[in-house]
Every structure is written in structure tokens, then in C-alpha cells.
Design goal:
The complex is a heterotrimer. Chain A is α+β, with helices and mostly antiparallel strands. Chain A has helices at residues 12-20, 34-39, 75-80, 82-87, 89-96, 101-106, 109-115, 122-129, 142-145, 212-220, 245-264, and strands spanning 5-7, 25-28, 47-50, 60-63, 66-70, 132-135, 139-141, 146-148, 151-152, 160-166, 170-177, 184-193, 196-202, 209-210. In chain C, the strands form seven sheets. A seven-stranded mixed sheet of chain C has the order 3-5-1-12-9-10-11. Chain C has a five-stranded mixed sheet with strand order 7-15-14-13-8, sandwiched between helices. Classes of the chains: A alpha+beta, B alpha+beta, C alpha+beta.
Chain lengths: 265, 155, 792
């Protein structure tokens, strides 16, 4: 790891200022991806602006029927939070399956979505549940937030502050984990709620994507049978040592059925 | 150089570190607490697990400065008054360690598990240990040790 | 009171003496050690699989902050530092020794694999060394690379070494090909099988580390190293690499965090740290980052094999023919040549009476990391060939796989049994292990369990593996005649201290095996002293007289036997002193549970009293030397032959290919057992590594570029707790006939037995004959899919 100057601002404004004052600064949330990246010397920021000291970014609250999760809330907190478990158990389950317990104790929702790893779980959670991302500058839909592999709509100096989730009637997240890294090879979030039926897939493609065929099939009949024939093309899907595109396409169908069954059950 | 202060195993400590200094480096190199080990560089093996403010974390993936002001417990701080913690005792009783390299992280992780789930089923224990790799034991006796510690800590 | 009862004696599951320090964070691993004034080394490694070094510009690196020196292969050449040797000469089928191209600690003209050592930067801190290392400018001319062992010997393949045309290290045979051909000619059925024994990366949890130190006042070196065999490392470094007298180097291997073979060898990094310590006159420390472990620890396995088994109409084995290509990697590691020959082909008889066997092994060089012994070393590869082909033969012949094995088992009355592949098994009872394993797994109930799995939509399979291994390595004369460059005895020193405690110095090295406990049990039991009064010292050539180290499941069978011999010497000397003190004749003095007694009287002296007398010899026999401190060497008469049967059951989700090992029964015959708890732990760990090989682990190089694709835990899949079941362990016992303890060794059994058990179970579940390891979900899904289509 190359050395850098560490900043620990207490407010979002100070964080933005600290970044503005740096020649090549970077925000750090939980650091679960960033620190290994720095260790491998794949990045060499001059300054690291640590968001861990900003109290306002932590915590979970209900606001106008939505569940609002502060960006610096850890996966472990989301997984065991009574409100999340009561209102959106699928989200608690998703958070409980990220990485390992120690990663969940440090990793945060804001950090995860800002990084937008194609194999991360939260992007499917946000898109599938129709969440809204709150930033230091604006609010935008999850659909608009994730723009590509490791890419989001965030500007350099923009910080995710919270994510607001509408409460679904039914939802479930099922993933097929990479046996080595435990990231998602395929993860599918299915939800039926105020925004209709939404199906989001992570791990399979360069970035999270929705499955329109499945959404329309489930619109009339929210059951595993309804998606029995939904097939996904392998074109454009990821292919690596652990899973070919063809296998991933197959797994999307299987995880979809299982997620719908779990949600409907 | 920035200064970092924290409480480690009940003792107030501080030191001058670089921005990039990891918590595990601070523990091993500055405080000479070498019970916490480094077994990988991708945050997976768990040999470096310590508790920060009561939660198990991988000390190779947190900067020392991120732990400024925190309460840190390492494997050296687990036994009290020369008496093994029930988890340490259970690992010994059930042969839950062989070479001993992954052991500190494994024990610290297991202690955190029982804090959160005092009565874990075997599959819950195995799932919890996802972040701790052991190459010697095949995990069989680690799982038994944690089950045994769970009953003795209820006792 | 001497405490040699069942609680601490031989056969008791004594809790480990070493645990307290590890459980409280007080273990002392190499990286935990800091030497005064130490500096840090960073190795500049090749990013290319094959390239010519046209030039190295180290000027910028030498000017970097904190840098003390930057060295390259030229600097080592100038000091006449030699090549890292391979210690076993294999003679090929034409009577020629294997090709042994040089392996310099820092590359001279060419780099031959990704991770090969090019230069070392030494600086005040590791971070400074690493930053300097990054400024070493190496001008490479990239060359075409060969990573695929199956294609290495092909016409036109890139050449790794000029000294080895066709990339051939050796073409070696064992057995009589004509006899085997004759057996095949009269066969009723021949089963043919192609197999790949997948390449593995050992991944001991403690990364390798070294600290080299030089004392200018005495001209002595000290090396702290993560070694399984410090004496052997000293011998290799002094005699072969540095040309240094052995009295000038002390090697210390303190607590070592697992080895599994990978820490047997003499590596470039520890060589460089030792040499550089004199150059910079400061202790030089290096600790591998895990990514370096992946790229530059010696890897394991990597065989491509075609096997054929000839049978008569009753399934009796008539002959076996095996052709294997073994990947040596870019250079020959310390014992690489022996693994696919004398540790492999000699095991191809297995537990069976196959009368004739022919094996042909071609060892090839490739642009990959060196390959050498990894837990089991050759024996897992042999067992995989044999237990897979026997299983396939049973399916083809429609004979129950248990029955086919039984028809061919060597029977108890046939021991000692001379196999057609050089080994002579001393003892065993293979039906007994099979009976017990079948009972434990409830073999008869399998059909019901399969139905229950099917009702859940799962495919269930059962897999058997009946393995044998040759360990307790090894009779020196035998291995010498086969090309070994060293003797494979072990030594022990048993020292009574004047006040009755005992210090044992052993040349074996414990890196997880629990020697401090097991050896203490042995000594406490033999000498009748309390176990807490026994201390085991190992891992330091400065204190342990001699040793050959720990590998090949040899520590108890060879190292323990040496301790037993030294204890016998102690008792015999003590008997003379006791006789003098009790005014009896030596022949009348009996020894039992720590007491010398004059037969038929109530006169007795404890061994502690004798020890005191030996050091305070005021009333003492004239013809006996003072002191009570004896050294013994033990050279085994034969290998030992642990054997057993492992059976596992798997459940497959055909929709995803996810395979779960749902039950595991291991019945092993390790002869006499000193500490059952420790033995079971060894079996558990071995099985986990075997299951890892069969289902999860795979070292993958890009076949075109030679880049390592599985260079971290993100891609190399280590077995985790959730991947494994609890294991059920049973033991049978036929004591080894030729060592004083009747023990055989247990460290490698699980890793040897497990892979074919898993693949036999998965192929059984899928209704197919064969598949390659690792059985990843995608592979299993594809095969399950074919199976489903075929069934429709």
C-alpha cells in the first residue's frame, strides 16, 4: 500500500471539503473493498476521506412508509435490525449473506453500492426493491444509480448518504455464491410491491439488470410456475473460471424460480 | 505522522502511524502483540480477527486510524487472570487447533458468534466460520469446540 | 509418583501441551521474531512466464528512501552462490540420470515462470523495500511459454531449458512391460481410464518467512525459517548452495504454521536472506505475502494419466498399465523427481494382488512454479488412479465395487507380501477395515437413503476408497539405491536433568502434528516419569544434534523409534547405576514404571534418583560414565504401510450442480496409536484437503500466457467449514512388525484416501463412469444434465 493522508471528517460537508482539498482524494466507507485494492497497489490516492466518523450517515429509520438506511450502516446492522427484519426480511437476509461475518461488521451499504461490483449483492437489492438513493446532492432511483461495471451516477465529489426502500408485499433474495470468494455468481431479488413486480439480477452481467420477461410473467401470476419457462440468454453475461456465461444464464432461471417460491411462500 | 490512540486489552495505548498503517501492523509491530496473524492479503483467511468495539473484524482490512478511540481486544486479552476463556479452553479440550496459526482469529471469531447466537446449531457455526480458513483441522474439532464452549458458557 | 497410567500414557488422548501458547497468542512464528537491526527484503518477481533478461537497471531503486542494497543474480554469481539442488536422482529408462538444469536463487539470464525471482531490494522497512523493488527496471524479451504438461513434450513446444530437449526431465519405467502385455493378451476385460490429477497450491496458513543473520565476529550465519526440516535445509544450503562448512550455519525453525510438504524444500528466498545478511551486515527478514505463496511455493500433484486394468471373467486383476505425464514446473524443487516415481509407481499395487504392473512416467518442464511433494506426495496420485479404475471396472463388469475389491485384496496370511512394484508390505488386514467401514456407513441401507434423497429432488451417490500408503520414510539403503542423496534415519537425544526432569531433542519437526504431546507421552510411558516433567525440543540445529525432519508421515515411526531407542539406552545405563546403589547384580535389577527393583526384594530406586546420582556421582560404579544423556539414531528397516477404507456419500442438486458431502466414514489402520485424539485430528485435516482437491481446489495457469489465474483466495477455493461434514472415524490395528513402537503414521492418510472416494460417489450419483477433479458445480451440473437427458 502506498501512503496517503487520512482524513476523518465529522460531517458530509467536511468530507466533501476534504476531498476538494486533495490532489487525488478518495472517499472510504467501510473499506472492505478499498483497503484490499490499496494493498494490491491497484489504487494510489493522495488522500483518503474516511466517512466512518460521520454520525448522520449511520442508522435505520422509517420515513413515510419507507425504510431509510444510512449509507454507513453496516451489513451486520441491517441483517439484525428488528425493523428491517419485520418490514423487509428479504433485505435483512441479503445483508446477512454478504461476505463473511467480519466483512459484515465493517462493510456498509453506501460503500457497497458506490463501488458497484458486478458480483455484489446490494445492487440487486436496491434495483429489485425499487429503492431510492440519497446523495449529498440529490435523490435518484436505483435504476438510474447503477450505470455499469464498477460505475455509478455518482460524481467524484458526491457521497451516498442513505438508501430509502419502499416496503414490498413480498420479496426474496436468493444467491448462488462463488465457492472461493463468496461473492454472487448469480443473485436474484424478486419483489412485489407498490412499484409492481421487480426482478433484479446481480453477478451474472457486467452490472445489475432487471429481467423484463420475468417481471411481466409474474405480473399476472406471482408464482414459481409463472417463471418456469423464463430463459435468459447467455449473450453478454460474465464468464470466468468459476462459471461460464451459459451456466450463469441457467442459474438465473433457477435462482429466479427459487426466489419467487421463497417470496410467494 | 498522525497519532493514534486506542484501548487494547484494557490498556490505553497510542503511537505515531502512517495513514496506511493497518490495525494489524499497529498491533504486531508497534505493540508487539504478535498473537494476531496475517495469512492473506485479500481479507479472507481470518487469521487476523480481533474485536473492535465488541465486534469481530479483520484487522488486516482496517486502518489503525480507523480504530482511533476504539476498544480493541486481541487474543492476548482473552484469558483473564491466567485463566483461559471458555472458548480457549474448549479449543484445547476438543483439539480444535493443530499448527496454531489460524487459531487466534478462529477463537476471536467464535467468541463473537456466541455473543450473537449463544446456542448455534452445527450448520450455523459452519456458516459463521466462512471468514476463517483453517488448513489443518478439517474444522471438525473446531465446530465441536465451539459447541462445547456454547454449553459451558451457558452453564 | 510416576504417572504412566492410561491418562497420560501410550494410547491416551492427552490434551496437547503446545496448545496454551497458541491459544493465548504466545506462539512464536518466524514473522513474530524481530532481530536487532533487522532490515527487510522484497523480491522483484517475473511478471512473465518465459522471458530473457536483457538488462536490469537498479540505479533508481538504489536511490530510493531507506534502501540499503539491491541485488541481482549477477551479484550472487560473483559470490559463487550455487544452484538450488534436487536431492534425488532418478535414472531414466535408458540408464541416464534425469536432466537437472540449474536453478539459481536469483535468475541470471532467463525467467521461467510468473513469480520467478529476479532481484531483491533490501531496505529499513518492508514498505520501503517494496517501493524500491518496484523501481528496479528489468528489460525483458518475452518468449513463448508452455504451461500445459500434456503438450510440453510435443514437437515445437517452447523449450524451457536448453539442457532438457523436448522439455523432458526423464522418461522412467517400473515393472516388466512384456509380462504386463502378456497378461493383457489373455484378459477377459480391460478397463481403460484417462485421469487428470489436478494441480494444487498447498496453502499452509502461515506464509513462508525467513530471517538471515550474520555474525562478523565468528563468521557464523543463523537462518530462521518456516521449515519442516531445519537440519536438511542446513545441509542443502551449506553443502550444495553456499559451499560453506556446516558448522557455520545454524537453522532455526520455530513454531511453523502448517507445512503439508511445501516447507520441506530449500527455497530461493531463505537462501537470499542468508547470503544477503553478510553482504549488508544486518539481519535480513522476508515474509511472503499470500500472493507470493500462490506464485512461488512449490505446488502439488499435476499429473495426466492413462491407465488400463486387465481382469479375468471373475474380476480378478491380471495386470495394470499406467502412463503418466508429471509436471515438474520450471525448475526441479528439492525432491520433485522422486514424487511421481518412487512415491507413486511403487504404490500402484494398492491393497490388491495384481500380479504384474508396468508404469511409465514422463516428467516434463513447463513455465509454471516448481511442483514437489504435497501432503501424500505421489501416493494420493497412485491411489486416485487405482481406486478410480477399480471403481470403473466394477461398474463395467457389473460387480459390486465392494465385492470386486474383496476378490482382489491381499489376504492376511499373505504377509509379508511382495508387490510387483518393489515394496514389501509387512502386515495388514484389508477385509477388516472394509467390514468396519461398511458397517459404520450402513452400506446395506444406502438404497433407502438414495430413495429419500430422490424424494427431495437430489441425486445421491456412495463412493469407496481402499487406500494404502508407504510411509515412515525411509530405509536409507533402499532409498539410496533408488537415487536419494540423503539418508532418511532420524535421531533423538534423551537427557535426564539432575533433578529428574527430561529434555528430549528430536530431529523431527512439529508444525501442527502435536509432537510435544505425543513424544512426551511416549517418553513418560517408557521412562515412568510424569508427562509434565518431559520437554520436547525441536527445530533448532543449534540444540538438536541431528535430524532429517518431518514429512512422509515419518515422525513417530522413525523419529519416535529413535526416541524409544535412546530411552532404552537410558534405562540400560540407569540399571547399572541402580545395581551399584542397591548392591545387586545388573541382571537382577528390573525396571517398571519408573522404578528399578531388585528382583524378589523390596529394594527400589526411582529413575529420578538414578539421574541425580549420575550427575552427583559420589557413590558410583567405576566402569560407568557420569551423566544420563543418550543419543540414538534409528534407520527404519522398511517403509510402514498404513491402509484403510474411506466411504463417503454425496447429495447433488441437479438444478445447480451443488454437491454436498453428507456423510464420511474413515476406517484406518495406523498400527499402534499413541494419542487417538491427535490421530483423529490428522485424519480430519487430511480428508478436508482431499475433499478440497476433489471438489474445490484447482491451480489454473493460462495455457497460452502462463499467467497464474488462481493467485488468491478470491479464485483458489479453499475448503471452509461449510463445505465439509463432520467425519466419523474408526480405527483397526495391525501393529507394524519392524519398528519398536508398532506404529505406521497417520498424517497423509486422509488426503490420500479422500479424492477417489468423492469422485466415486459423485459419478455414482450421476450414473457416469468418469469425471475430472475438481467436481465444481458447473461440471456436475453439465454431467447431471447429460444424465437427465440420457434417462429421458
Amino acid at each position: 500500500m502506498y501512503d496517503f493522508t487520512h482524513h476523518r471528517p465529522a460531517s458530509v460537508d467536511d468530507a466533501v471539503k476534504a476531498l476538494a482539498g486533495a490532489s487525488d482524494g478518495k472517499f472510504m466507507a467501510g473499506g472492505m473493498t478499498l483497503i484490499p485494492t490499496l494493498k494490491q497497489r491497484l489504487a494510489s490516492p493522495s488522500d483518503l476521506v474516511d466517512l466512518g466518523g460521520i454520525r448522520d450517515l449511520k442508522g435505520i429509520r422509517e420515513d413515510g412508509g419507507k425504510l431509510v438506511i444510512g449509507a454507513m450502516t453496516t451489513h451486520a446492522t441491517v441483517a439484525r435490525d428488528a425493523t428491517v427484519r419485520a418490514k423487509i426480511p428479504a433485505l435483512a437476509h441479503l445483508a446477512d449473506g454478504i461476505g463473511d461475518p467480519q466483512v459484515r461488521n465493517r462493510g456498509t451499504i453506501g460503500g457497497s453500492i458506490a463501488n458497484n461490483d458486478p458480483a455484489a449483492d446490494y445492487p440487486a437489492g436496491l434495483v429489485g426493491l425499487g429503492a431510492t438513493v440519497h446523495t449529498s446532492k440529490r435523490e435518484l432511483s436505483a435504476d438510474d444509480f447503477f450505470t455499469g461495471m464498477f460505475e455509478t451516477a455518482l460524481a467524484e465529489d458526491e457521497i451516498v448518504t442513505a438508501v430509502a426502500f419502499p416496503q414490498p408485499d413480498k420479496a426474496a433474495y436468493v444467491k448462488f455464491a462463488n465457492p472461493a470468494s463468496r461473492y454472487a455468481i448469480v443473485g436474484v431479488m424478486v419483489a412485489k410491491g407498490p412499484a409492481g413486480v421487480r426482478v433484479a439480477v446481480t453477478g451474472a452481467g457486467p452490472s445489475v439488470f432487471r429481467l423484463a420477461d420475468a417481471e411481466s410473467a409474474l405480473g399476472g401470476n406471482f408464482s414459481a410456475d409463472a417463471v418456469g419457462n423464463v430463459k435468459v440468454s447467455a449473450d453478454g453475461l460474465n464468464s470466468d473460471l468459476h462459471a461460464s456465461a451459459e451456466y450463469r444464464a441457467h442459474l438465473v432461471s433457477v435462482m429466479l424460480k427459487r426466489a419467487v417460491a421463497a417470496a410467494a411462500g | 505522522m498522525p497519532r493514534v490512540s486506542m484501548t487494547v486489552n484494557g490498556r490505553s495505548v497510542s503511537g505515531d502511524v502512517e495513514g496506511r498503517t493497518l490495525l494489524v501492523q499497529f498491533l504486531r509491530e508497534h505493540l508487539h502483540l504478535t498473537g494476531t496473524h496475517v495469512g492473506c492479503d485479500t481479507s479472507q483467511c481470518g487469521a487476523c480477527v480481533v474485536h473492535v468495539d465488541g465486534e469481530s473484524v479483520k484487522s488486516c482490512t482496517i486502518l489503525a486510524l480507523q480504530a482511533d478511540g476504539a476498544e480493541v481486544t486481541t487474543i492476548e486479552g482473552l484469558a483473564k487472570n491466567g485463566e483461559l476463556h471458555p472458548m480457549q479452553a474448549a479449543f484445547r479440550e476438543h483439539h480444535g487447533l493443530q499448527c496454531g496459526f489460524c487459531t487466534p482469529g478462529m477463537v476471536m471469531s467464535a467468541v463473537d458468534l456466541l455473543k450473537k447466537n449463544p446456542n448455534p446449531e452445527e450448520d450455523e457455526i459452519r456458516e459463521w466460520l466462512e471468514g476463517n480458513i483453517c488448513r489443518c483441522t478439517g474444522y471438525h474439532n473446531i465446530v465441536k469446540a465451539i459447541q462445547s464452549a456454547a454449553s459451558s458458557m451457558k452453564g | 509418583m510416576p504417572d504412566s497410567g492410561p491418562d497420560t500414557g501410550i494410547g491416551a488422548s492427552v490434551k496437547r501441551k503446545e496448545d496454551f501458547r497458541f491459544l493465548t497468542g504466545q506462539g512464536r512464528f518466524t514473522d513474530d521474531i524481530d532481530r536487532p537491526g533487522q532490515v527487510h527484503a522484497y523480491f522483484v518477481r517475473s511478471p512473465h512466464a518465459h522471458a530473457r533478461i536483457k538488462g536490469i537497471d537498479k540505479a533508481a531503486a538504489e536511490q530510493a528512501p531507506g534502501v540499503i542494497a539491491v541485488f541481482t543474480g549477477a551479484d550472487m554469481a560473483a559470490d559463487n552462490v550455487g544452484s538450488l539442488p534436487c536431492g534425488w536422482v532418478v535414472t531414466d529408462r535408458h540408464g541416464q540420470p534425469h536432466k537437472a538444469p540449474p536453478h539459481f536463487p536469483l535468475a541470471r539470464d532467463k525467467v521461467l515462470y510468473v513469480g520467478d525471482h529476479v532481484a531483491v531490494a533490501i531496505a529499513e522497512t518492508y514498505a520501503q523495500a517494496k517501493e524500491a523493488g518496484e523501481q528496479v527496471a528489468v528489460d525483458y524479451e518475452e518468449l513463448p511459454a508452455i504451461a500445459n504438461p500434456a503438450k510440453a513434450a510435443a514437437e515445437g513446444a517452447p523449450q524451457v531449458h536448453d539442457e532438457a530437449p523436448g522439455n523432458l526431465c526423464y522418461d522412467w519405467v517400473m515393472g516388466d512391460e512384456a509380462q504386463v502385455d502378456a497378461a493383457f493378451a489373455k484378459a477377459h476385460h480391460v478397463t481403460r481410464l484417462d485421469l487428470i490429477n489436478n494441480r494444487l497450491i498447498p496453502n499452509a496458513m502461515e506464509p513462508r518467512a525467513a530471517i538471515g543473520e550474520y555474525d562478523g565476529g565468528t563468521d557464523n550465519y543463523t537462518l530462521y525459517s518456516t521449515s519442516q526440516n531445519p537440519h536438511l535445509l542446513k545441509l542443502i544450503l551449506c553443502a550444495f548452495v553456499f559451499g560453506l562448512n556446516e558448522n557455520k550455519l545454524r537453522v532455526i525453525a520455530p513454531d511453523v504454521g502448517g507445512g503439508f510438504g511445501s516447507k520441506i524444500f530449500c527455497y530461493a528466498e531463505e537462501t537470499v536472506c542468508t547470503w544477503a545478511a553478510k553482504k549488508v551486515r544486518r539481519p535480513v527478514k522476508w515474509t511472503a505475502e499470500r500472493s507470493e505463496s500462490f506464485s512461488s511455493d512449490a505446488h502439488g500433484r499435476d499429473h495426466v494419466t492413462h491407465a488400463e486394468l486387465a481382469m479375468d471373467e471373475n474380476g480378478k486383476f491380471l495386470g495394470l498399465k499406467v502412463e503418466t505425464t508429471a509436471n515438474m514446473g520450471a525448475y526441479l524443487s528439492s525432491f520433485a523427481t522422486a514424487v511421481p516415481t518412487y512415491l507413486y509407481a511403487t504404490l500402484l499395487a494398492g491393497q490388491y494382488t495384481t500380479p504384474v504392473i508396468f508404469a511409465n512416467v514422463k516428467a516434463v518442464f513447463t513455465n509454471t512454479a516448481p511442483v514437489d511433494a504435497y501432503r501424500g506426495a505421489g501416493r494420493p496420485e497412485a491411489t486416485y488412479v487405482l481406486e478410480r479404475i477399480v471403481e470403473v471396472a466394477a461398474r463395467e463388469m457389473k460387480i459390486d465395487p465392494v465385492e470386486l475389491r474383496r476378490r482382489n485384496f491381499i489376504q492376511p496370511d499373505q504377509f509379508p507380501y511382495q508387490t510387483p512394484v518393489a515394496l514389501q508390505y509387512d502386515i495388514g488386514d484389508y477385509d477388516q477395515s472394509m467390514d468396519k467401514a461398511l458397517e459404520m456407513i450402513d452400506y446395506k441401507g444406502f438404497a433407502e437413503r438414495r430413495k429419500a434423497s430422490e424424494a427431495k429432488g437430489k441425486l445421491r451417490g456412495i463412493g469407496i476408497s481402499a487406500y494404502i500408503e508407504a510411509c515412515g520414510i525411509a530405509p536409507s539403503a533402499v532409498v539410496g539405491s533408488l537415487g536419494a542423496g540423503v539418508g532418511l534415519w532420524e535421531s533423538a537425544q534423551v537427557r535426564f536433568n539432575p533433578t529428574g526432569s527430561v529434555t528430549i531433542f528430536t530431529g523431527s519437526h512439529s508444525h501442527g502434528q502435536g509432537h510435544e504431546t505425543t513424544f512426551s507421552q511416549l517418553v513418560a510411558d517408557t521412562l515412568g516419569v510424569p508427562i509434565e516433567n518431559v520437554e520436547i525440543v525441536h527445530g533448532d540445529t543449534g540444540s538438536v544434534p541431528m535430524g532429517m525432519g518431518t514429512y512422509g508421515s515419518r515422525s513417530l515411526a522413525v523419529g519416535g523409534s529413535a526416541i524409544a531407542k535412546a530411552c532404552d539406552k537410558i534405562i540400560e545405563k540407569s540399571r547399572k547405576i541402580a545395581a551399584h546403589l542397591m548392591e545387586a547384580s545388573v541382571e537382577d535389577v528390573e525396571f517398571d514404571k519408573g522404578k528399578f527393583r531388585v528382583a524378589g526384594t523390596d529394594k527400589e530406586k526411582s529413575i529420578a534418583e538414578i539421574a541425580f546420582t549420575a550427575y552427583v556421582p559420589h557413590n558410583y560404579p567405576a566402569d560407568v560414565e557420569p551423566g544420563l544423556d543418550e543419543t540414538a539414531f534409528y534407520d527404519p528397516l522398511n517403509f510402514t504401510y498404513p491402509a484403510g477404507v474411506h466411504i463417503c456419500e454425496v447429495e447433488i442438486d441437479p438444478a445447480t450442480g451443488i454437491t454436498e458431502v453428507v456423510d464420511w466414514v474413515a476406517v484406518d489402520d495406523f498400527g499402534k496409536v499413541i494419542n487417538p485424539m491427535v490421530v483423529e485430528g490428522q485424519v480430519h485435516g487430511g480428508i478436508a484437503q482431499g475433499v478440497g482437491q476433489a471438489m474445490l481446489e484447482n491451480c489454473v495457469y493460462d495455457m497460452e500466457s502462463g499467467q497464474l489465474l488462481t493467485g488468491s483466495y478470491m479464485d483458489y477455493c479453499m475448503p471452509r467449514a461449510g463445505d465439509l461434514p463432520s467425519f466419523r472415524i474408526g480405527l483397526t490395528e495391525t501393529p507394524c512388525t519392524h519398528n519398536p513402537l508398532g506404529v505406521k503414521g497417520c498424517g497423509e492418510a486422509g488426503a490420500i484416501a479422500a479424492p477417489p472416494a468423492v469422485i466415486n460417489a459423485i459419478t455414482d450419483a450421476l450414473g457416469i463412469l468418469s469425471m475430472d477433479m475438481p467436481a465444481t458445480p458447473e461440471k456436475v451440473w453439465r454431467l447431471a444434465n447429460q444424465h437427465a437427458q440420457a434417462a429421458e
